[in-house]
Automatic annotation (TrEMBL):
Binding site for ATP: G87, W88, T89, G90, T91, G92, K93, N94
Keyword Cell cycle in record: no
Protein name per UniProt: Torsin
Main location: endoplasmic reticulum
Family designation: Belongs to the ClpA/ClpB family. Torsin subfamily.
Domain Torsin-1A C-terminal: from-to ranges: 257-314
Record-linked InterPro entries: P-loop_NTPase, TOR1A_C, Torsin, Torsin_1/2
Protein source organism: Scleropages formosus (Asian bonytongue)
The keyword Glycoprotein belongs to this UniProt entry's keyword annotation: yes
Amino acid sequence: MEAISTSIAVGMAAALTGFLASYQNVFYYFHECCRNEWISFNKTGLQVDLERKLFGQHIASRVVVKALTGFMNNKNPKKPLVLSLHGWTGTGKNFVSQLMANNIFRRGMESGFVHQFVATAHFPHASQINTYKAQLQEWVRGNVSICGRSMFIFDEMDKMHPGLIDSIKPFLDYYDNLDGVSYRQATFVFLSNAGGESITRVVLDFWKAGRDREEIQLKDLERAMSLEVFNNKNSGFWHTSLIDKNLIDFFVPFLPLEYRHVRMCALAEMEAQKMNLDEDMANEVAKDMIYSPKEERVFSVKGCKTIASKLEYYR
Ligand SMILES: Nc1ncnc2c1ncn2[C@@H]1O[C@H](COP(=O)(O)OP(=O)(O)OP(=O)(O)O)[C@@H](O)[C@H]1O
């Protein structure tokens, strides 16, 4: 009798465990959690997105795919992935961050594991730097302890207070863990306009020499770009040892966009807004943008920014 009741109890416990496990699976199917169902890198998806949606950025596309593939496939990275995206306004830095998030997190930028900071909006007052430092450190620590695969995007990095950049430095380093939290699976993406002038100079030289833009390689830009970032006294980077200490894994240059790219942006935006594709309107929009330098007028000063609002006007 006793044996029967024991086996019934064991059976019930097993059934309950099974029920709880499947309940948990159903729960996590609908509620985002730090598991593979919600976070997994889709390399092909990223490649396709970059090929189809990102215009004129052959180097950035290549570097981003390479960096993420290596990092996401490594079960035991030695440090978090740190990408620094540089270039003129409107050339696609935020856009690429979104494409990255979309191909790692099922909820993309809406994911609770993707965190975006904008220097001027989130940390506007230099006098409150100590409060910001403490808040930022706690925010990063808290979120990484919930999910190691968290992604942090820092926009306007060049406007960020040097002290604030310094305060996140330990998270980017090769530490096994800090106070019991390991940051090695996390991704940090820094966006800035620093380096934009140097990048433009190199692209202009290629253009003047009649060379194909696609011939430009990362090495053609890297040196000029890092010199500008280093020497720019207004840039937050200048004060810090992020670059000094090799904490940035990849510099990702964004090239200034030309008329043909702006045109493609206009067509893409029409598609996004479910409008009929109108080549003439795309030409008009592209023609109305301002191009620099003064004599050559090759590069759109605002890149593809403001295209969406311009379309409203032409409709
Ligand atoms: N290279 C590009 N290819 C396709 N679309 C682009 C590209 N660059 C910009 N766009 C479009 O323009 C919009 C604005 O660009 P985005 O915000 O990515 O620029 P940014 O480089 O981050 O600029 P900023 O330095 O001012 O923040 C994007 O949402 C996208 O729709």
